[in-house]
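Quick check before the chapter quiz. The format below is the same one you will see on the exam, so make sure you can read both the input and the output lines.
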Amino acid sequence: MSTDTGHSGIVHWRRSLWNGARCEPVLVTLRPGSLHMRDRSLGTVAHVDPHGVTGRLTRLGTLVLTIDGRRYALVGRGASLSPAPSTEQRQALEDAGHGAASPGAVGGAVDQLLNGGAAALMRDWHARLAAAGARLT
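Here is the expected output.
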């Protein structure tokens, strides 16, 4: 699915570098001119034009975004202590008709074995955001 029609998926927001329970699922929706991140209760975490987003992808697959001066570290998979995506998030994702990962988001053997393809998922989001106008390195 291209960014022309939109893409949605559930990733995890690392609100703390040390506390895995603070790694929360967020529903991310990218549409032309709009990046929307919603928490477990579907409350808005961020809603901006992708052109106003800066960030980078780390070697370990963390997509670090800066939106309106606030840092968001997004990863493809939560910690064992992390809450699961809510029923509301899963329903909103299903209603949007989008999958959590694109068919092209397939990682290498090590990523698949050790990380469930999470790094590949974040590389896919990096590419989609860059194509939508985000200033990413």
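If your answer matched, good. Helices lie at 87-96, 109-115, 118-131.
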